[in-house]
Amino acid sequence: MIRFENVTKRYGQAEALGGVSLEVAQGELCVLLGPSGCGKTTLLRLVNRLIEPTSGRIWVGGRDVMSLNPVELRRGMGYVIQSIGLFPHMTVLENVGVVPKLLGWPREKRERRSREMLALVGLEPETFLYRYPRELSGGQAQRVGLARALAADPPILLMDEPFGAVDPPTRARLQEEFLKLQAALRKTILFVTHDLEEAVRLADRIGLMNGGRIEQIDPPIRLLTNPQTPFVERFLGESRALLVLERHHLSELLKPLQATSRDGLPVLSLSATARDALSQMIVAGSDLALVQNQRGELVGEVWLSAVLALCRGARFSGDGRGKEARP
Amino acid sequence: MTRRGGSWLLWALWAGALALFAQQGLWRAVLGCLFPSAPTPIFERQTLLSLTLEHLGLTLWAGGLVLLFGLPIAVWVSRPQGQAFKPLLENLVAVGQTFPPPAVLALALPFFGFGAQGAVLALFIYGLLPVVRHTLEGLAGLPQDVLESARGMGMSPEELLLRVELPLALPVILSGVRTSFVLILATATLAPLVGGGGLGVPIIAGLAVSNLALVAEGAAAVAILALLLDYTLARLEATLAPWS
């Protein structure tokens, strides 16, 4: 759906991208991860031609972006940035309807669509449609930003640190809802972040970038367990094993309920991760946790040994410090 | 809604002011009390109401020209195509305002002859600066992230200007318009120097014959109009930019 072919970008002498090739499949959520200045945002902005490559080619849906009208190109893909950039002089209704309006949709259709989109991102339309952006909290503004990007139903979404500016609990909730949304919508998404945890939680594949190049591109668990270069190993850090647990949900580890005494045992929800379970077991000092469903009924138990077995099965290479960092 | 109520109040204030200016007898009595030594307490050759309407006419003509030329020029030099002319324009309008209005009036005389045109021209030149400067400032000070997301969503440069940049810069632009109009209104009292009419007529006539009552008549009327015009434009600002 999106393909980079040996793309470089120079600003004068400075090289922002040094020959990047990458293909994002239809319906894939590809996360570009890396430290500031690694070129991940540059790569993203090449897709909708907010910047243009020095050399190399970028294909979107089988067409070279440089052969397309940039305005048309951009209307075909949603764009969300960290500061969201909602239009302060437009209500939520008008903000969400911007691209449909540019595309010439009639008024009623735009309004119906805005309502649908707000409901989709978890905002009550009647409450929010006629508010101005300054009347929204950070999390609400972020949801409106997402609704706006989705309004014209583009097949592609470009997201640049979309959850970077909200507080951690709100961010976790937005990420969770975003994953559910993506499971239903199956957009092709290029997602930029510098947050390793966010990348692991969301990505189908992570492209870890450094100095204008992709160091390694792999699904999260493979990246965490098999770092290919010292840089990747250092970037993942020494607690990468915990992030592997982040990708496993308790539903995978569930055993039938057998515990006789339930006093002092931690209770987690089915949607919690193995990492949450480990943390709760550490807090409670037990090697067993109970699991309940959304209605609050206990449905099973999870043993510490099962959690540890996940990591054993992961077969880590390297020691998490990177070769150059060794004494 | 409060906005509706506000515009109703505005019309009432204007109607009230014009009704007040129509009370020749009242003005004669009050000014006669304040200036007992004045031979004629009010200007006799023309009613205060007709002087006021003339004055507003001059102001609106000059102000209208300022909007007609000032806004598009300021917008144009804020675009990439016109960027090169930005310093030139900024300097020109600054010079326009430092030039004393009576001198502009005198210089315009040979071109336009005696009458209102010269006055309108001088007021137009004098009033350009606030509108142009505020428009440039307003367009330059827009939040970059908003412009970036507008471009990223596929707005063409024209759509960006009309749907995002101008609406967002509107409060700043309107405050320039407000300054400009009030400045023009006050300066229009010099128009009679070239035969332009307006509320400057009794003021200048009063100064010539040392009749302070006439000066006070014109000055009070101009002050009332200035307050009212300022308030009107402030209301307009609130109506056109309800988000801020």
Write up this protein.
The complex is a heterodimer of chains A (327) and B (244). With 327 residues, chain A is an alpha/beta fold. Chain A is built from 14 helices and 13 strands. Chain A has helices spanning 40-47, 70-75, 92-96, 98-102, 107-120, 125-128, 138-150, 168-185, 196-202, 220-225, 230-236, 240-246, 274-284, 304-314, and strands at residues 2-11, 14-24, 29-33, 55-60, 63-64, 77-81, 156-160, 188-193, 205-210, 213-218, 267-269, 288-292, 298-303. Chain A has a six-stranded mixed sheet with strand order 6-7-8-3-9-10, sandwiched between helices. Chain A has a four-stranded antiparallel sheet with strand order 2-1-4-5, with helices on one face. Chain B is an all-alpha fold and 244 residues long. Chain B has helices spanning 2-21, 24-34, 48-78, 86-98, 101-112, 116-140, 144-152, 157-187, 200-208, 212-240. Chain B starts with a helix and ends with a helix. The model of chain B has no long low-confidence stretch (mean pLDDT 88). The interface between A and B is medium-sized, with 26 and 22 residues.
Please work out how many helical segments of chain B DSSP would assign.
10
**Shape call of chain B:** elongated
Structural class, judged by helices and strands of chain A?
alpha/beta
Question: Proportion of β residues of chain A?
Answer: 15-25%
Oligomer: heterodimer
Number of E-type strands of chain B: 0
Low-confidence stretches of chain A: none
Largest interface, with counts of residues having CB < 8 Å to the other chain, equals: A-B, 26 and 22 residues
Distance between the termini of chain A: 45 Å
Distance between the termini of chain B: 17 Å
Q: Using the CA coordinates, give the radius of gyration of chain B.
A: 21 Å
